[in-house]
Amino acid sequence: MENPPAGRAGKTGKPAWPAGRYLKYAIGEIILVVIGILIALYINNLNTEKQDSITLNGYLNNISQNIKVDEVNLDRIAVYRDSSIIGSKYFMNIIEQENTLKEQYSIYFTEYFKYNPWLDKYFQSNKSGFEALKNSGYLSKIQQTTLESELYKYYRLVEQIENEEKYLNNFMEEMKYDIYKNNIVQPIKSIVNKGVGNIETDEDFDKLQSFFNYPSVVGSHSRNAGTSYLNELYNELLISAVNLQKEIENMTKG
């Protein structure tokens, strides 16, 4: 800014500024101050946006890591569920026959009993990253985006799976309680331990038939044989996981 303009000397002996020149000078000073403030705000906003982006990416990367663990757990529970369903269908096939061979009992216990429906198996998702994002307030920064849509789709499916498995496991707990309360398993333990294929007495054979025809045992396998819908949900969640991972990658790679 130029020095104040020289003018006629006043009573003090100092040059007097013309009013118009003084006003222009004052306005110029104000403009410089405003420009400085705007530049400072712009730089501050850039820094804030950069830091917000870093923080948001941190939450999203945590969610991405959670999903990778979920995918591993989904594969495991899907494999178990497939085997368990096959075992229950094999069980139902045995009891529907008029004459069951001891070899069929043997196959059930050696191949499928380890996947019996009374095992408390379920998919457990790690939702810590998503919960942290919701509590942080940063979820608002991805509103009305495909990423937000995929996030909610994924965790709605997680909740649906959890509810379905809860209903199934609660039912199986009731069946298991009845089975053990009435001592249905104990009589066949020795038979199973020595090998069902080796049984020779009619008494042992009758014990096996009593176990296979007990209402709670039949009810458990009948219910479990129809749980392929869970595998469909697992597969749907796996597809959603892939889509969500892509959206997170697109958001964080910039």
Fold and architecture overview:
- The chain has 254 residues and is an all-alpha fold.
- The protein has one domain.
- The protein is built from 8 helices and no strands.
- It has helices spanning 19-95, 102-112, 128-136, 146-181, 186-194, 202-213, 215-225, 228-252.
- The two termini are 42 Å apart.
Radius of gyration: 37 Å
Q: Residue share in helices?
A: over 70%
User: What general form does the structure show?
Assistant: rod-shaped
Largest sheet: none
Low-confidence stretches: none
- Approximately how much beta-strand content do the residues carry? under 5%
Total beta-strand segments: 0
- Can you give the mean pLDDT? 88
Number of helices: 8
- The tally of structural domains comes to 1
Q: Helix- and strand-based class?
A: mainly alpha
N/C terminus separation: 42 Å
- One letter per element, helices H and strands E, the order comes to HHHHHHHH
